[in-house]
Write a structure and sequence with these properties.
single chain; alpha/beta; six-stranded parallel beta sheet; two-stranded antiparallel sheet; 7 helices
Length: about 160
């Protein structure tokens, strides 16, 4: 659990982390440097879920051995499926991290939405839906590892 008071926005109590795989955790199907260590660290405080259409079919292999659950989405309707995931696990206790157009609904619905502008870029709609925009997945995960950074970014 990550608990934090954000001035002007109230209490933040996160229990779940939903991560997109393609373009967020991985580039061209390969996990980005530093991601594995950060997921392992965050798993001590949050239930980590990777929710993906797995464009390249590499997510399970790339994440093998990490303390996270991989949820593979069927083709078509990924944005709505990710939104349903956020609602099923409780939007008020979930942080969502993504970069694509199919992440926009989840980023908007989650208590905290973090958009990543990584090596594959980011959808404008994902950026507009997020509470925070960062330049790398490492930065996104570090905001959650060091919540005072998140507090500084979000306070009113």
């Amino acid at each position: 659990m990550i608990a934090l008071e954000i001035p002007g926005r109230g209490e933040l109590r996160l229990a779940h982390l939903m991560l997109d795989f393609s373009g967020t955790l991985a580039c061209d199907g390969v996990l980005l440097p530093g991601v594995a260590e950060r997921i392992a660290d965050l798993a001590g405080r949050l239930q980590v879920h990777v929710v993906t259409a797995d464009t390249r079919g590499t997510a399970r292999e790339a994440l093998a051995g990490l303390p996270c659950v991989v949820h593979l989405l069927p083709p078509g309707g990924e944005a709505e499926a990710k939104l349903e995931f956020v609602r099923r696990f409780g939007a008020e206790t979930l942080a969502a991290v993504g970069n694509g157009y199919n992440d926009r609904l989840a980023l908007r619905e989650a208590r905290i939405g973090i958009a990543v502008v990584g090596p594959e870029g980011a959808s404008f709609d994902a950026l507009a839906a997020a509470d925070v925009v960062v330049g790398s997945i490492g930065d996104a995960l570090d905001l959650l590892r060091e919540p005072l950074r998140l507090k500084a970014t979000l306070r009113c």
